[in-house]
Backbone:
């Protein structure tokens, strides 16, 4: 590696604000410590080091405040030093001690510079801030980062405590530590300077790159960006291996890469078609898609369809799947211009993309260019519907529409259904869980109706991610026999080299491991900036919207600090919740190559085509391996190499993959399971099917052997033996069957403007999240910008926010109590009783923390009324004997109850519409005894704002459903090979409190106890979990019961 001397092009010095002055390759931070200690006090410093550097540090070091404006410090340092303090000296200090010294511009409207020049700024109060409004100018602020490092508590993963008031001796220790760090860095600089290098010049040279840039937008970025800072065109960027080498040579590189896997390039494998498609089709392919040959998997799929099979193709993303649908369609239309087809994509954006592509190829195909392709879904205007039905050859639709609009009106659709030749379902793996069961039954209803109008020859074509059981999944979803399905799993598409990195954030200070690791957020966003500067087009995936917004905010702040507006304007966040126009605009920018970076949630995972991306960074493991691979698949198109980086978080599941990275890439995906025998779902679709056409016993061929029993029990039989819908489901049974779970009510977040009274809706937030995202005084993040929530109305469900460029975020402090109020029914489930009844949910946001750099600046109390609602739910009390056992083993009872509740919900087929009371680390690990005690009870309630009723259904299906779920949960938790709990057993992706309060062992004991099973815990496991803090759980009190309830035994 190059030695850095004056006159050379500056190397990148700006990773996550932790760059260091680079002297030589050997002078990496870790080694520097050793070098310095071995040559203590022998190093002769240039005078400059004493006068300009060490003294300055000593002076600013004695400040115990979080931050000081440069103006204030300059005045007092100059008074003491008797010579001017240059901005360059501080910048040099930052170059020397980048992890300690933070020196950057902060928006002025956050500061209140007091008349007393030596006094530090204060953050404005809420009302002052609001009255002041946004401002565009900035103030230079100096802060010392070790003031910010608070003790990280084991379980919260977040420093939920105020900075401690510092004693004089503690302050002295802090200053000493800073001095030692500074001395070592300076010593090291002298030791490692080459014979012809002047340490003073080296330092001054490095410091120049750390002079903060005033980000007032008036300064054009070009003025700041020198010739060496021009971002290369993505086409001209360096190969990924070179960039990785560059990363490992950076001074901020501290062995973060703990796994590096290279998938070598793969040549295309071509296949041939015999006979070839017509010349018109070949011409259309060449003209519209630039396709003249077929990859082997495309050729086999097209052959398969031609031979009458139903085809599923399970290959990598970007392997040219649309050809597999389009060519057979064109061939069918050439044979019979009355032929019809149905295309279903999981997202609207994806469907729009593919519709445009299909229209183009049809248009280029002589003889077929007049044929019409239309979208037919819930947004299609009523007056357009008839025309589409009559004239379209291909409709793009979704299962919701097929379920609620097409099948129930089969008489209108008869001509279309009669002529459907192809039915395409893209991304088949998307249809899993409860939704998958619904879709499988809708497909059976479709096949039944089509057969009844005389069409038994519909062919199904699907593509999926690489699944272990693509063929059997296809059979199960569509109700097909193995002999009818052709599964193609060999991928003939070429691929360029792919590099995968697992990136573990480094220890903040190797000498003080207790400080923990650097934040995954800082690492991921820093890496993203580094890559974008090199012309690498990056997508950063975040798990939830809040993280997505925070990441965007971080990138925005860091890029402005560096003066890189050229890059900043080419980064955009993208996620659900944004308005449709915003999303379309971002998609268009992304696709046209305007963007260098996208910060996204999983909304983009399934993906609309956003063009060529070179790199994917995942901030934290995305919960499942299919998601991981799907996200990884977003990078790298045929002609370019690509990079995928998983930045690990401190959670158990991330750490598991940090230790077993090979599983991320090599492990076959678990089989996707779809339960087509679920009686709850089947009964619902029998009601719908019997409306479409009365059901007879011969329909068992579609609905399976349990059909008869359900029809007898829940449908109405006429005198001729035909079954019709139960009157409760009329007039439209499909209106009673929600296939995605009910749509949740939403809060509108509206932006108030300063000047006039106009309100603009910027986002919609689901009721279940609204309490925690919009509360008065809190910061609401939207597209990386900060807004202060001024007013929330729970009645109209509107939250008014005002744009305010603050550099802190807020985190609500709340509790949610879920209490059983009244018992309506009781059922026995194995050796315990389950209760159904009225449940009261109370969410109280009693305040919030203002947080910056993970440090609490302030705890604000708010006095908003609690949000109270009554709903229905069911619960199971944890008996005293189990509680006693848990306590005698010194296990945390709250952890056990929370984990057991999740274990139940994970196995519960109707889980999407029920919630449980999640336990928060902030409350459960409090050192002082809390007066808030919660009953020892697994409680589940119908989501509020979704219509409810699921709990009652769970009870109707009675013992079998509750008991089966308990049994399954117990088996899974007992046998799951994970150590601390994973998403298969106790950790739920939907946990409101991020699964921090969890004991897998405790859950096992509760579940076994409820089922009356023998407890065989091993002593070692328990030792590891011994908990000594206060207990927050009390015996479940009796619940008032309606009169005369009898225990239902079966
Ligand atoms: Zn597990
Ligand atoms: Zn939870």
Residues:
């Amino acid at each position: 590696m190059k030695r850095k001397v004056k006159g050379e092009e500056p190397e990148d010095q700006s990773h996550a604000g932790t760059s260091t002055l680079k002297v030589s390759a050997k002078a990496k931070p870790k080694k520097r410590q050793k070098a310095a200690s071995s040559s203590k006090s022998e190093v002769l410093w240039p005078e400059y080091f004493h006068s300009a550097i060490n003294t300055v540090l000593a002076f600013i070091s004695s400040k115990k405040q979080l931050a000081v404006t440069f103006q204030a410090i300059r005045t007092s340092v100059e008074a003491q030093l008797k010579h001017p303090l240059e901005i360059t000296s501080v910048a040099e200090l930052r170059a020397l001690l980048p992890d300690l010294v933070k020196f950057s511009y902060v928006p002025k409207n956050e500061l209140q510079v007091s008349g007393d020049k030596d006094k530090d700024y204060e953050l404005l109060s809420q009302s002052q801030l609001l009255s002041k409004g946004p401002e565009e100018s900035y103030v230079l602020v100096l802060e010392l980062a070790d003031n910010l490092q608070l003790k990280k508590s084991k379980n919260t993963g977040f420093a939920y405590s105020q900075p401690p008031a510092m004693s004089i001796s503690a302050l002295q220790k802090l200053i000493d530590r800073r001095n030692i760090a500074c001395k070592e860095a300076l010593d090291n600089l002298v030791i490692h300077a080459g014979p012809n290098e002047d340490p003073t010049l080296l330092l001054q040279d490095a410091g120049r790159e750390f002079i903060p840039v005033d980000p007032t937008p008036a300064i054009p970025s070009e003025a700041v960006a020198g010739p060496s800072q021009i971002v290369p065109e993505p086409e001209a960027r360096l190969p990924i291996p070179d960039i990785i080498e560059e990363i490992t040579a950076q001074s901020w590189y501290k062995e973060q890469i703990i796994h590096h896997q290279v998938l070598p390039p793969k040549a295309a494998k071509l296949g041939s078609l015999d006979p070839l498609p017509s010349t018109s089709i070949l011409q259309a392919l060449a003209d519209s898609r630039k396709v003249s040959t077929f990859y082997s998997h495309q050729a086999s799929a097209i052959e398969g369809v031609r031979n009458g099979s139903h085809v599923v193709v399970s290959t990598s993303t970007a392997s040219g799947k649309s050809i597999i649908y389009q060519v057979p369609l064109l061939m069918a239309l050439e044979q019979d211009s009355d032929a019809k087809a149905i295309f279903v994509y999981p997202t609207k954006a994806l469907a729009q993309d593919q519709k445009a592509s299909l229209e183009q190829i049809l248009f280029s195909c002589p003889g077929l260019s007049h044929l019409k392709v239309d979208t037919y879904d819930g947004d299609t205007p009523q007056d357009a519907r008839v025309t589409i039905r009559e004239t379209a050859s291909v409709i793009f639709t979704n299962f919701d529409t097929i379920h609620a609009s097409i099948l129930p009106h089969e008489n209108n659709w008869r001509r279309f259904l009669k002529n459907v030749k192809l039915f395409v379902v893209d991304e088949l793996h998307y249809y899993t869980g409860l939704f998958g069961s619904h879709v499988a039954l809708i497909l059976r209803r479709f096949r039944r109706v089509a057969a009844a109008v005389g069409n038994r020859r519909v062919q199904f074509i699907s593509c999926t991610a690489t699944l272990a059981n693509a063929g059997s999944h296809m059979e199960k979803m569509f109700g097909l026999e193995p002999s009818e399905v052709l599964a193609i799993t060999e991928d003939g598409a070429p691929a360029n080299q792919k590099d995968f990195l697992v990136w573990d954030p480094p220890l903040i200070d190797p000498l003080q491991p207790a400080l923990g690791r650097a934040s995954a957020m800082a690492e991921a966003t820093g890496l993203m900036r580094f890559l974008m500067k090199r012309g690498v087009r990056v997508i950063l995936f975040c798990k939830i919207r809040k993280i997505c917004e925070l990441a965007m905010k971080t990138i925005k702040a860091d890029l402005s600090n560096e003066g890189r507006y050229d890059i900043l304007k080419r980064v955009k966040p993208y996620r659900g919740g944004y308005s449709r126009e915003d999303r379309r605009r971002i998609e268009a920018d992304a696709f046209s190559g305007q963007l260098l970076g996208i910060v996204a949630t999983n909304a983009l995972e399934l993906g609309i085509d956003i063009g060529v991306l070179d790199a994917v960074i995942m901030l934290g493991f995305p919960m499942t391996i299919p998601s991981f691979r799907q996200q990884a698949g977003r990078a790298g198109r045929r002609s370019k190499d690509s990079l995928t980086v998983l930045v690990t978080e401190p959670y158990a599941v991330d750490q598991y993959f940090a230790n077993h990275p090979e599983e991320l890439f090599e492990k076959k995906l678990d089989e996707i399971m779809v339960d087509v025998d679920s009686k709850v779902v089947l009964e619902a679709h029998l009601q719908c099917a019997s409306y479409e056409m009365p059901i007879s016993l011969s329909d068992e061929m579609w609905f399976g052997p349990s059909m008869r029993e359900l029809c007898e029990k829940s449908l109405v039989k006429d005198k001729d033996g035909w079954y019709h819908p139960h009157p409760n489901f009329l007039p439209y049974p499909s209106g009673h069957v929600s296939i995605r779970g009910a749509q949740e009510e939403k809060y509108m977040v509206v932006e108030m403007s300063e000047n006039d009274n106009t309100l603009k809706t910027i986002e919609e937030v689901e009721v279940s999240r609204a309490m925690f995202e919009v509360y008065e005084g809190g910061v609401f993040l939207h597209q990386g910008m900060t807004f202060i929530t001024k007013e929330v109305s729970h009645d109209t469900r509107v939250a008014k926010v005002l744009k305010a460029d603050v550099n802190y975020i807020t985190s609500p402090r709340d509790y949610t109590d879920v209490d059983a109020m009244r018992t309506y029914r009781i059922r026995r489930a194995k050796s315990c009783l389950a209760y159904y009844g009225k449940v009261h949910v109370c969410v109280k946001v009693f305040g919030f923390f203002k947080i910056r750099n993970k440090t609490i600046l302030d705890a604000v109390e708010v006095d908003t009324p609690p949000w109270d609602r009554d709903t229905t739910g069911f619960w199971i009390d944890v008996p005293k004997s189990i509680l006693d056992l848990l306590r005698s083993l010194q296990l945390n009872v709250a952890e056990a109850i929370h984990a057991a509740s999740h274990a139940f919900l994970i196995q519960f087929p109707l889980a999407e519409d029920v919630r449980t009371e999640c336990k928060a680390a902030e409350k459960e690990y409090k050192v002082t005894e809390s007066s808030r005690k919660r009953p020892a009870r697994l409680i589940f309630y119908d989501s509020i704002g979704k219509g409810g009723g699921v709990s009652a259904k769970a009870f109707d299906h009675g013992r079998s459903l509750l008991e089966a779920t308990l049994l399954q949960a117990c088996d899974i938790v007992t046998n799951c090979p994970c150590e601390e709990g994973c998403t298969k057993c106790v950790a739920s992706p939907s946990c409101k409190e991020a699964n921090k309060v969890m004991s897998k062992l405790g859950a096992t004991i509760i579940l076994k106890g409820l089922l009356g099973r023998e407890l065989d815990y091993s002593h070692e496991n328990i030792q590891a979990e011994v908990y000594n803090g206060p207990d927050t759980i009390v015996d479940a009190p009796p619940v008032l019961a309606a009169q005369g309830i009898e225990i239902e035994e079966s």
